[in-house]
């Protein structure tokens, strides 16, 4: 049986994309339609030997055994919309026709795949997980993040807003939700390349400390602080947020850290942040969320967990709010920025494509293809409400129930 026939048996006789394979079989593409190209027998071995289909397909794409002629986003979007319901008996027949047990021979695993050791979410293992993702190279991240070097969801005023404008707006929205004032002390946990720290110091006169478990991020951020003349107000340290002293900060921002700490650690995470705040202080927690509270925190053994965010975990907004309340925070405001993250990822993806040759020179073809697949897949996830992004604003009232918040939000204008 030729592979083109297998493809139509799976997706239907009128597929929305073209197809071609190393065995010479093909399905013509419509005008401007992308083409899925199975270039090598090892593609089938990756698919058959992986415990999860999407992991096998990812491995095949990363190594080049599967490629796409045309736009990867358009191909994945078209295939995403298909409802494939193939009976198990039919799958067994296809398996036998393509080689049966011979398909289980697993080709070499791409070097980018993470293999962590030690106790889950211990400080040393968390440091390794963060390093796996973020220490790919600052020069590589600059190619697709742009001048802001912000690796979290931006906030778009309109579809015409540029990425840099949207990232500035995100930082400023956080600043206004925290009601930053000159002289305040801000702690930004999981600070990345220090975008929030620099914004708060430059535009609000806040004394800001950022902490990150990525040594490369900390070095880049500290240099940027000095280059911008902000060293009297801003600082970024290579430090675990759990090692920051308590009772010292007026406000805390956490922008993209919660996904890394593990669902079983949410209670201790929010309690730790609560202990670092002064009474009356605010916490702005910004993180990717699940659209519900069902099922696992993340697909264990899947592409994202193996290649992008090892040990990462997502929670629904409900459990996050509950943990904030249980830690002592009064949650005053919550906002879903799902559509904004889809736009952010589209901008990052466009930057990566524009700088593709430079990206390959910096990190190699397999790593560049890994990030392309990740950006496109996540963009589709946000577009189709498979994942969301929530900002939650909490306040530490203390025993006196201080009037720490205005009667109406001041950050919406």
Automatic annotation (TrEMBL):
Keyword Transcription applies: no
**Keyword annotations of the record:** Lipid metabolism, Methyltransferase, S-adenosyl-L-methionine, Transferase
- Which molecular-function annotations from GO does this UniProt entry contain? methyltransferase activity
| Domain of life (superkingdom) | Bacteria
InterPro entries linked to this entry? CFA/CMAS (IPR050723), CMAS (IPR003333), SAM-dependent_MTases_sf (IPR029063)
Catalytic positions are 378
- Could you tell me which Pfam families the record lists for this protein? CMAS (PF02353)
Q: Which GO terms describe its biological process?
A: lipid biosynthetic process; methylation
Q: Which family does it belong to?
A: Belongs to the CFA/CMAS family.
Put simply, this protein is called Cyclopropane-fatty-acyl-phospholipid synthase
Report the source organism.
Stackebrandtia nassauensis (strain DSM 44728 / CIP 108903 / NRRL B-16338 / NBRC 102104 / LLR-40K-21)
């Amino acid at each position: 049986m030729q592979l083109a026939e297998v493809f139509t048996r799976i997706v239907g006789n009128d597929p929305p994309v073209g197809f071609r394979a190393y065995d010479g079989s093909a399905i013509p593409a419509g005008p401007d339609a992308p083409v899925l190209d199975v270039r090598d027998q090892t593609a089938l071995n990756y698919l058959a030997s992986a415990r999860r289909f999407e992991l096998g397909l990812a491995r095949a794409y990363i190594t080049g055994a599967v490629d796409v002629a045309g736009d990867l986003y358009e191909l994945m979007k078209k295939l995403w919309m298909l409802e494939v319901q193939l009976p198990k008996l039919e799958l067994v027949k296809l398996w036998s026709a393509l080689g049966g047990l011979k398909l289980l021979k697993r080709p070499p695993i791409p070097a980018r795949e993470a293999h962590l050791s030690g106790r889950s979410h211990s400080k040393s293992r968390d440091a390794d997980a963060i390093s796996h993702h973020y220490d790919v190279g600052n020069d590589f991240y600059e190619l697709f993040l742009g001048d802001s070097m912000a690796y979290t969801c931006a906030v778009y005023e309109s579809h015409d807003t540029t990425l840099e404008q949207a990232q500035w707006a995100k930082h400023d929205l956080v600043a206004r939700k925290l009601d930053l004032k000159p002289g305040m002390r801000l702690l930004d946990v999981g600070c990345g390349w220090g975008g929030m720290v620099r914004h708060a110091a430059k535009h609000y006169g806040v004394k800001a400390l950022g902490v990150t478990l990525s040594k490369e991020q900390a070095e880049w951020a500290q240099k940027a602080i000095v280059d911008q003349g902000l060293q009297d107000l801003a600082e970024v340290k290579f430090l675990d947020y759990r090692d920051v002293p308590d009772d010292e900060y007026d406000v805390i921002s956490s922008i993209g850290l919660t996904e890394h700490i593990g669902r079983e650690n949410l209670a201790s995470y929010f309690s730790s942040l609560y202990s670092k705040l002064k009474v009356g202080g605010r916490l702005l927690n910004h993180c990717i969320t699940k659209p519900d509270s069902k099922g696992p925190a993340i697909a264990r053994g899947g592409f994202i967990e193996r290649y992008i965010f090892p040990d990462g975990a997502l929670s629904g907004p409900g459990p996050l709010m509950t943990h904030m309340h249980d830690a002592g925070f009064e949650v005053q405001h919550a906002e879903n920025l799902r559509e904004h993250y889809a736009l952010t990822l589209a901008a990052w993806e466009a930057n990566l494509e524009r700088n593709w040759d430079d990206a390959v020179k910096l990190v190699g073809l397999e790593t560049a293809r890994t990030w392309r697949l990740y950006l496109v897949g996540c963009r589709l996830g946000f577009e189709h409400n498979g994942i969301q992004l929530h900002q939650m604003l909490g306040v530490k009232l203390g025993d006196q129930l201080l009037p720490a918040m205005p009667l109406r939000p001041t950050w919406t204008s």
